[in-house]
Specification:
mainly beta, 226 residues, single chain
């Protein structure tokens, strides 16, 4: 079983910024600090880590900007800059997300642009999420399309996610489907994650990597905890 512990330095979300440290076991099994992150209420995030000479250098910086907002939804631009171990800027991604909610149904359309070798942003992915919430259970259908060699976009992956959440915990179960020559889309992976939220900390338990009839069970990386 694999464990990851995130400790919040701030005691309340009412503070302007949360400081987060992640700890991972070293070769002797002792927990050592790996990545530090500063998260602002609007979603801006700055991660730093130790370089080879022991200096703190940027690892990843995310900036979130609301382009428009209305009674049923909003459009948000998220720009992420990733840095190499020396702190030099590497890849840049920009995602524009249009989220609209009517009743218990939410539709999210996200377009992601990725920098090429010359630093120019090229459209790299289109993602559509249709989520329906009933009580504390949310069922989501996800469709992911990416460009082919001729430039046209083609659906390369579909996902079905069921999330059950309350004030103290989140349980998520996701099945991933990819194209099959004979049957359209076939299940290839299954991911499960359980999260317990305690005052001042979030503990995550991930399932082991277990191959089973073409399905694989390991950690589900959640983009949002509600």
């Amino acid at each position: 079983m694999k464990y990851c512990l995130l400790t919040l330095a701030t005691a309340s979300l009412a503070f302007a910024q949360a400081n987060i440290s992640s700890y991972q076991p070293d070769l002797n099994g002792r927990l050592v600090e790996g990545i530090r992150a500063a998260v602002s209420p609007n979603g801006d995030r700055t991660e730093v880590s130790d370089s080879m000479n022991g200096r703190k250098v940027p690892r990843e910086v995310t900036e979130v900007r609301v382009l428009s907002e209305g009674p049923t939804g909003r459009v948000v631009e998220t720009t992420t800059r990733k840095f190499d171990p020396t702190g030099q800027l590497g890849a840049v991604t920009r995602t524009v997300t249009d989220e609209q909610t009517v009743g218990n149904k939410t539709i999210i359309k996200a377009t992601t642009y990725v920098s090429d070798v010359n630093g120019r942003l090229q459209e790299g992915e289109r993602r559509v999420v249709e989520a329906v919430k009933q009580g504390n259970t949310t069922s989501s259908d996800v469709s992911i399309a990416r460009p082919t060699l001729n430039g046209a976009f083609e659906t390369v992956e579909k996902r079905m996610v069921v999330s059950v959440a309350d004030e103290k915990s989140v349980h998520e179960d996701e099945t991933i489907y990819r194209p099959s020559q004979n049957t359209g889309f076939t299940p290839v992976e299954r991911e499960v994650r359980d999260v317990k939220k305690d005052p001042g900390a979030v503990s995550t338990t991930n399932g082991p990597f277990v191959p089973r009839h073409g399905l694989f069970l390991w950690s589900l990386v959640s983009q949002r905890l509600k």
